Amino acid sequence: MSRKLISAVIALGLSTTIAVAQDYPTKEIQGIIQWSAGGSTDTVMRSVTPHAEAALGGTVVMQNMTGAVGAIALNHVAGAKADGYTLLMGAENPLLYKVMGLGDKDYSEFTPINILARGTPILVANKDAPFDDYSGMLDYIASNPGALRLGSTGPGGLPSVITAMMNTVEGELDVIAVPYDGDGPALTALQGGAIDVMPAVLGAAIETIRAGAIKPIAIFDVEQNENLPDVPLVTSFNDGYNTYLPWGPFFGVFAPKDTPDDVVAKLSAAYTEGAANPDFMKLMEDRGFTMMGISGAEATAFLSKWQQGTAWLLQDSGLAKTSPEEFGIARP
Amino acid sequence: MHPEFRGDMDHHDGTSDAIPGGYVEKQRPGELAFAIFLTLASLFLLYSAYGISGFDALSAPGAIPMATTLVMAISAFAVVLRTARLKKVTTETLSKDILPGTVVLFIGFLIVFGLLLQPLGFVLTAAVFLIVAIKVLAKRGWGYTLAVALGSLVVIWIVFRVVFTVLLPAGVLPEAEFIQYFRNLMSAGAS
Amino acid sequence: MDTFLAIFTVFTQLDLLVLVGVGTFVGIYIGAIPGLSVTMAVSILISFTFSWDVYPAISLMVGIYMGGVYGGSRTAILLNIPGAPSAIATAMDGYPMAQRGEAGQAIGVTTVMSFFGGLIGILVLALAAPFVSEFALSFQPRDYMLLAVLGILLVGSLSSGSMIKGIFAGSLGIAIGAVGRDPLTFTERFTFDFQIMEGGISFIAVMIGMFGVSEALMQLQNVNMKAVRQKIDRIVPSFGTVKKYLPLSLQTSTIGVIIGALPGTGGDIAALMAYDHAKRVTKKPKVPFGQGAMEGLVAPETANNAAVGGAFIPMMTLGIPGDAVTAIMIGALFIHGLNPGPMLMIDQPDMFWFIVGALFTANIFMLIFGLTGIKIFTKIVEIPRSIIIPLILLLSIVGAYAVNNSITDVYWMLGFGVFGYFMRHYGYPLGPVILGVILSRLLDDNWRRAIISEREELGRFFHGIFTSPLSLVLFVAVILIFVSQTPLWAILKKRLFRKTS
């Protein structure tokens, strides 16, 4: 084949990609939500996307694809064409799939479009629990070993990470971890007294705290929270937590790796604009989320820092199935 | 009539779930083989359930699966013993009453449907399936077959794909572009 | 008192009234088509109604919810294919009636009874919500486990025919429910190292396969049989009929409200439990159960509609969803700037009364649309089989795919369809399989939670049961029902009878 022809073919190929990117989107975009309808990822994604759609001038059809702790959705989108027409709307979990033995893919197969917001962990207790603050709880655990029932949501979930943090900072705590399949059911069980303490995301617990049905023990953050100004920070009890905090689950929109740069740029711009919508900001603030709205290199850096910190925390507390080292996740 | 038999004579084929098929006092063709298959499958599942976590703890993830597969194996074996003792139904044969040609043919259709759904896309696969199936069953002219098959397909497609935005496998047809085209027309018309 | 007047909001604003009506109408059809679920419809509505005010959005959702729960009974009666999981029990006696040409009468009774059940649910929601939600919260993991065991014992009444085959079918269902990654520890169960197995098997796929595909294959054997002509002159049941079933429907509605109010259990379990209850208390049904007994229609249909009101109880009082649909509605309230939770009743009591009013209106619309559209609906049965069989198969495939956008579910559905076909031929009941799948997680998860909470000690576990009144009641019920189904009971009864005589 002559060289001219080859270059012509390449040029044609390039021009069509450019044409595609300029017109993008020419068809509807599939947004695959990793979690079930009604969950927090679902709610956040369904409330930001209409604003982003307006900015993008296209349609995003959202579908929930649940199962295997979100791995099904992740694999589906990772395997889709990298043309910007299939997006993953996910949370933090995939960053732990490798170390927890849940899958062989994580966000390194993706380009972050926008990391929307971050949640704040809070430790809450049943309203009749025999202690009112963090140090009281530690005293209770010390004097009643193996009696405190602590809610969890499976390995790699927020409660397991917070528990790992507590075990690392305070030394091994002798408690019973009762597993639930999500923070909603676990918080229900907390109100009913089936468990005594539960590390939860602030947004999920805040209304119940306001009503006095459960009591806040400590906020796992380095800054006082505006929504609950009276609840003490865990760092005020033990400085050791400063090493790991701020930490929190996050929500983000992702496209498969190798999606054309201009398509990513267009999507990022749309979601950044969508996330800046005052209605959406108010909604997120009311639920106690910290807005992030980061994309590009900043988002990639955030993801790798998050993964390093959390994966090694789990490894050090013995929860990880495979050492992060195996996957080239450096110790922070 | 056997006290356990609550159905009526016409429904030994299990047309309704409340009236399960089969005869209580007799063995249908293939019934014993089915029961043996279930027993073996249950034993295999029991072995697999043991592999989940062994006798690790009462709360182990494998505890309930082991208990249930054990019950499956025992009950399936009991069915084998009971069925083996029964007399065979003399008036029925496997190829006439349990697996007639049409049923085998349709099971084949369904398997082909499942295999083609992803690569070919929903619309084409469903169109071929409906046309062939209605042609085979109704034995009417092509005009009637095509009209009924494609007409109902369009309705189903609109309900699921357009109204309920179920992302059925698109396959080789540029379905999303097609919908977007209409959306643009609509919005152009509206503005 | 002003806030209470919010109950009339729906009636005073025409647009809201229309939306509830449209929602109910659409809901009936969504419910009737297997694979289109209310959950799905409501989550699509979240995006659709995004820019609306909160009242119109909620009106539409409430309508769809109420209509959808009822609509599932339509296809259950006419085609023996439950449109929704909560209509499984309805098929057992509804379909035999349709086979006798009494589909019109069956739908009529179903509609009136669904209305009645819905009404009871709404009344309880309006009058006793805080009390019921407190009761629901007091259920501990061991109580949920006992409830699941109680449910599994229903196998006895669901398996007409051979009991041992019913036991097999029930345990098969529990095993099916365990496939995939365990939600508590993420351990792989029955996945055989296949990645496609990790997501587990959707129980809707099992239901559509076992009831839809196997039914269609069954009917292939008599394609040319003429369809039964349906009598549609007497649709609305007489006052006497309604009065006759009033005591039963009150009991089954109560079952529905309580099961509906418990977080984690919904209309499907409620309907099956109510069916079992009806079978137990009805000493002499006019027609035997399983062959078109009215009681077998009344019980599940009152219960699943009563469960709607029930599901709203924890949602409105505590911000805890009673089922999947109310979970999405909580999300919708968030998006519209409300904060559902225990404070909602205090901060925005209008919202509570508005929802009660909307539910009540939807219930009335359900009665109207339910009783008027029957003529066209029953025509479905009269469509030639050569057309309806391919359509059922196609709808089953689309429906199974739609549940989770997964091709794997389609394969499962087809596999269980063929398997179910053999099960029917050889006298294995299908109901217990679905029952097992529904109850699998409830049993498994809560058993493990309960025993973990007691540090793996059985002694402490039973101590817990005997010291809690609720657990004790459930435990005694389990024992009694178990004994009544075994030969032991017959022996015992004989002895007692001899002594007294």
How would you describe this structure in keywords?
heterotrimer; A: 332 residues; alpha/beta; D-Maltodextrin-Binding Protein, domain 2; 2 domains; six-stranded mixed sheet; three-stranded antiparallel sheet; 11 helices; globular; B: 191 residues; mainly alpha; two-stranded parallel sheet; 2 strands; 2% strand; flat; Tripartite tricarboxylate transporter TctA family protein (chain C); transmembrane (chain C); membrane (chain C)
What does the model show?
The complex is a heterotrimer of chains A (332), B (191) and C (501). With 332 residues, chain A is of the alpha/beta class. Chain A has helices spanning 3-23, 40-56, 71-78, 94-100, 134-143, 158-170, 183-192, 202-210, 261-275, 278-286, 296-316, and strands at residues 29-33, 60-64, 86-91, 110-118, 121-126, 149-152, 176-179, 197-201, 214-219, 250-256, 290-294. In chain A, the strands form three sheets. Chain A has a six-stranded mixed beta sheet, with helices on both faces. In chain A, strands 8-5-9 form a three-stranded antiparallel beta sheet. In chain A, strands 6-7 form a two-stranded parallel ribbon. Chain A is globular and about 65 Å long. The model of chain A is unreliable at 8-20 (pLDDT under 50). Chain B folds into two domains: 9-98, no CATH class; 101-190, no CATH class. Chain B has a two-stranded parallel sheet with strand order 1-2. The radius of gyration of chain B is 25 Å and the shape is flat. The model of chain B is unreliable at 1-19 (pLDDT under 50). Chain C has one domain (14-453). Chains in contact: A-B, A-C, B-C. Chains B and C meet through helix 1, helix 2, helix 4, helix 5 and helix 6 of B and helix 3, helix 5, helix 9, strand 2 and helix 10 of C.
Q: How would you summarize what this structure contains?
A:
The complex is a heterotrimer of chains A (332), B (191) and C (501). Chain A is an alpha/beta fold and 332 residues long. Chain A is built from eleven helices and eleven strands.
